[in-house]
Amino acid sequence: MTTDDELTIESRLAEQEYFEPPTEFVGQANMTDPGVYDRFDEFPEGFEEYAAMLDWDEHWDEVLDDSNPPFYEWFVGGKLNASHNCIDRHLDERKNQTALLWEGEDGEQRNVSYQDLYREVNEMAAALRSAGVGEDDIVTIHLPMVPALPITMLACARIGAPHSVVFAGFSASALAERVDDADSDHVVTIDGYYRRGDFLEHIEKADEAMDEVDSDPDVLAWTRHNEPQVEVSDDYTLVSELLADHRGERVAPVSRDAEDPLFLMYTSGTTGQPKGCQHRTGGYLAYATGTAKYDEDIKPSDTYWCSADIGWITGHSYIVYGPLSLGTTSVMYEGTPDYPHRGRTWEIAEKYDVDIFHTSPTAVRQFMKWGEEELEGYDFDFRHMTTVGEPIQPEAWLWYYKHVGDESAVIVDTWWQTENGGHMITNLPAIQDMKPGSAGHPAPGIEPAILDDAGEEIAPESGEAGNLAITRPWPGMLQTVHGDDERFIDEYWERFSDTDSDDSADWIYEAGDAAVQGTDGYYRILGRLDDVMNVAGHRLGTMELESAIAEVEDVAEAAVAARDDAEKGEVPDVYVTVREGVEETEELRERIVESVEEGIGKFARPSNVLFVDELPKTRSGKIMRRLLEDISNDEELGNTSTLADPSVPETIRDQLQAD
Ligand code: WTA
């Protein structure tokens, strides 16, 4: 093709507002009936369609008990086990089919069939029990992208022990904080794993965390190879040794109440303390399974690859629970997409003949920056592609559509949150046309609204931006914030609900995002409205960063502002005032960065550390981060009239320009 032709295609695509799904896609899709929306609008019974996709030990008596909002109960009276649903029930038909297709960064490969998964999960369940894990004990799992992670999760689910997976990139302190909050008596880790060719000594984080925790948990350590590659403390139990005692053992799946918790997933909020979002067994699994089937179009015969990390909610719902519950083959990759070369993603896609590919806008922007040349020579053919985690810019969407999807794959942009369990706003790919930059329509049964700051609903399809809210419950929603019902209400319900009311119609979930619904009914998500930032699709609380920085000795005060970044979406800028007599040195900057790495993790590293004389504060002493954000983004300053000293932002600007 000549360059001119290329240009014509680019400009044709750029002008096109909607993209129809290819006929071949529609012809084979799991959900093609527009009537699905009406069925789910039979509220709450519509959601039984998802629950019916699962195997239940006992059928539920009631779909939804909403008598005590916002403590909703789903599929009340039902009993089931998540590991049975993800493994045992598939054995008759597909025990030899690959469940997990794992590729190590070093090129090692493992095909874990459903039969293998059954064996390994049973043995691990027996091992956990023998290590003293009982039903309802929360197990903290700090593992990278290796098969041990889903195996441990499913083993916990099998014995009714909720898991709390902490993303491997979190630091020792972040791990310790989550172990304490969950009151975990067991922590599962691994000696190490590969990252850009190096063997990372992951177990060090557990070592340090054990010095910091309030209690004295038992540590179980997997090994990346047969033998430990680094020193493992004598206080720890090697999982390999434990498993050796339980070879061939079978553990009957514990029949759990639908409302029994399946897992905790900590996420950032507007305070320094992360929240343990607690997810129920029945409603969560039904919602993850149903949305994976309808939105992701997953079939058992597919090879499905979600390149997220299982340490975040996307990996829980759309690498482990949703895909395995549907009996498909789910790909897991240990490493980074640019190791040992920038074509690694496409090499894997070709090698395993991936049908469905799921990634983040940050990854798409990165691929785009590397250039389409990196895809040349790789022969793969995606039918369906997903993005999640951040808004995707139309240019990035178009690039993904053209160069990765070859204009023949559908794309779904899925908006949802850790708290939601599964997709909330996304198109059903065979039913609606795609629109670059828009997440699209509410998922079946989901009822969003856009509210103004006073809580009044903005007219639907008005094109006017406001606060995104959800006006009725759904099965994937979190049950509560672990151990803190009050915080659950404060964080999500207080603002827009009549909290004195027992009528669930008066309870409205606040998402914390801004959104706009166009005249065509499509929702576009604009980003967070609260003090949560989105760095490369990772959710970070500005308060968490600030409390990590406050620990640095010479820092008087710190405020974090989100700066827009072409690749990562947002990056943290840190504004710091130092104590009297302290010099603003490079060394202090480094200590500040280190403190964030130690308090949270390397992925939260500040992009800039800016020394200033004063921070902009209101008369009551509240730091106005929004003004700092204006400064970071070189935008016109917002309203400064509530500042104690309205000249501060301009002084900061002058100061930064002078530096
Ligand atoms: C953002 C990730 C725009 C949003 C599943 C939300 C998105 C936060 C999208 C939740 C999307 C997620 N378009 N923004 N498709 N998906 N977000 O809890 O700000 O890690 O509130 O869950 O990510 O992040 P979390």
Automatic annotation (TrEMBL):
One of its GO terms (molecular function) is 3-hydroxypropionyl-CoA synthetase activity. GO terms for biological process: acetyl-CoA biosynthetic process from acetate; carbon fixation by 3-hydroxypropionate cycle. Residues 37-86 form the Acetyl-coenzyme A synthetase N-terminal domain. Residues 88-474 form the AMP-dependent synthetase/ligase domain. It comes from the Archaea. NCBIfam families: Ac_CoA_lig_AcsA, PRK00174.1. This is Acetate--CoA ligase. It comes from Halococcus morrhuae DSM 1307. The lineage of its organism: Archaea, Methanobacteriati, Methanobacteriota, Stenosarchaea group, Halobacteria.
